[in-house]
Amino acid sequence: LSQDEHTLMDNQHSNSMDNLDSECSEVFQPLTSSDDALDAPSSSESEGVPSIERSRKGSSGNASEVSVACLTERIHQMEENQHSTAEELQATLQELADLQQITQELNSENERLGEEKVILMESLCQQSDKLEHFSRQIEYFRSLLDEHHISYVIDEDMKSGRYMELEQRYMDLAENARFEREQLLGVQQHLSNTLKMAEQDNKEAQEMIGALKERNHHMERIIESEQ
């Protein structure tokens, strides 16, 4: 072969080898990119993972905030209920103290009325005894007059000063005794009615005190259950 033919053949061989390398590189280049694509996450997937994590964290944070808000509201409501119950308990205790004071006053009034009733009864008995005593004296004087045959039923102008004095004294005593007796009976009736009313008020106060004590115990149990 001539020198030119050898040169031409060498150039063709070289071109053939270059074309083969180019084709191989084209063939293997997609395979390499595909493998890399399988190994590495896509851009959308790499962006989606943090988004999901942020979403989960946000949801967890929102749930925690809601739970804290609910607990705070619940605690606030319990504090308001406890405050209201404490105020009602304080008012009940004050009412109970007032009723106890009224009961003590009624008991003192009952004792005073009882003492006054005893005094009036003693005075009534004394006046009755005096009236009976004077009546016996008058009967005795009349018996003396009858025994000595002295007339004590005579005209007004013939009566002695002593007889008129005794008669006037007797009439005054009888009138005073009758008036005092009626007055004492009226006072006794009034005291009896007042005493009955006081006893009734005392009974009602005792019942109310018992009810308030029961209410007080109930409120204490409510406060203990809420704490």
Report, as a whole number of angstroms, the end-to-end distance. Answer: 115 Å
> How many beta strands in the DSSP annotation?
0
**Could you name the ranges where pLDDT drops below 50 across 5 or more consecutive residues?**
1-6, 20-49
Largest sheet geometry: none
Label the structural class.
Answer: mainly alpha
Strand content: under 5%
Rg, Cα atoms, Å: 62 Å
- Per DSSP, the total helix count is 3
Order of helices and strands: HHH
What is the residue-averaged pLDDT? 68
Helix content range: over 70%
Broad shape: rod-shaped
Quaternary structure state of the chains depicted: single chain
Protein name: Cytospin A
Keywords: Coiled coil
Organism: Crossoptilon crossoptilon
Structural account:
Helix 2 runs antiparallel to helix 3. Helix content is 92%, strand content 0%. The chain has helices at residues 3-39, 43-147, 161-226. The chain contains three helices and no strands. It has 227 residues and is mainly α. The protein has a domain at 85-226. The two termini are 115 Å apart. Residues 33-47 have a biased composition (Low complexity). Residues 1-65 are annotated as: Disordered. This is Cytospin A. Residues 9-19 have a biased composition (Polar residues).
Would you spell out the secondary-structure blueprint of this structure?
Elements: H1 3-39, H2 43-147, H3 161-226
Helix pairs in contact: 2-3
Coiled coil: 86-116, 163-222
Organism: Crossoptilon crossoptilon (White-eared pheasant)
Protein name: Cytospin A
